[in-house]
Amino acid sequence: MNILFITPWYPNERNPISGIYVKELARAISKNCNVVVLHGYYDASIHACIISDKTEDGIRVVRVQYPKSYVPVLSYLLYLFTIFGLSRKILVDFKPDVIHAHVYLSGIIAIFLGKSYRIPVIVTEHAEIIDRFKGGYLRKLTNSIKLFLAKFVFNNADILVLVSRSLQEYIEKLGVKNNYKIVPNAVNTEIFYPNKINKNKTNKKLLFVGGLTPIKGVPYLLEAVGFIRNKRDDFILDIIGEGIFRKDYEKLAYDIGISDVVLFHGLKDKQGTAEFMRACDFFILPSLYETFGVVLIEALACGKPVISTLNGGQKEFINDENGILISPKDPVALGKAIEYMLDHFQDYNAESISSYTKEKFSYDAVGKTMEDIYSGILSGKIN
Asked: For residues 59 and 37, what is the distance between their CA atoms, to the nearest angstrom?
């Protein structure tokens, strides 16, 4: 089958971690399907559109860089116009059997193309439409527009694919009625896999990987570590990631008095992240909310137990056999979970955790699920 991805999120030179989960899905599907990715994104450093057409990891990726306007609506209209034109050309030479859009914004283009050329359209949404942690009049207006566009796309797609049941419940509350399918994110088990040999270490290794933004709950993690640091010093917390709050969090670690056990390493590529995950004893993601949490399955694929929060899709695959779930925004509960894990991480079965993750989230598993959906919609078994 020929599958055309249309997505505003995909790794690029400006942002190598943007939409990496879309790339993982494309790679999973490309094992048995022909995939072309059409990716458009803002680039504030340019003054005119730049189009490139390259093969990356065996997948043809057509990129459109377009300048960012001081008027956001103009930027978005330029995005729609350019992507729509390129899509029509790709439809002629690639002849996709299915158009698979990621994120409702690219779904608008996909819906019009699908209706015009009678091609089935699948839309995968990866996140909530409204930022539940921000307010203000202008944001309310923006959110109203977002909701209008998103509901148009979701209600007109042939199939709506979501990464978790938690996200499905959220979208159903918006009044969207469609044929829902749950397809989780994929993990590259050739990069994320357990250590064959566990080396003895003086200090136990804790790991956080994520954007250094409030939604990831980093301040609560640092506060929890502060509680524990008053009792023991047999651990190190490695923090992988970047964000506009990095300096604030480094200062907070210093003010709490935990700079000696908290190390900020900045961004790492997938290989570098995997090395940290294999070296850690357990992984922590104290997000206020996650629709899924790709870094969690990456850690689990490495055979590591995890600590995360109950608020989101992660509760659908974290259980007593592979980790601990706590309420978000609760540094006391987080501290207790970390203390427990410091003394009991070795009780978790690394091989079992890794096998479970590979069975549910490997390229083969996720790719097969998505291929069945493509086949079903083309054969008329799914409508």
From this structure: 7
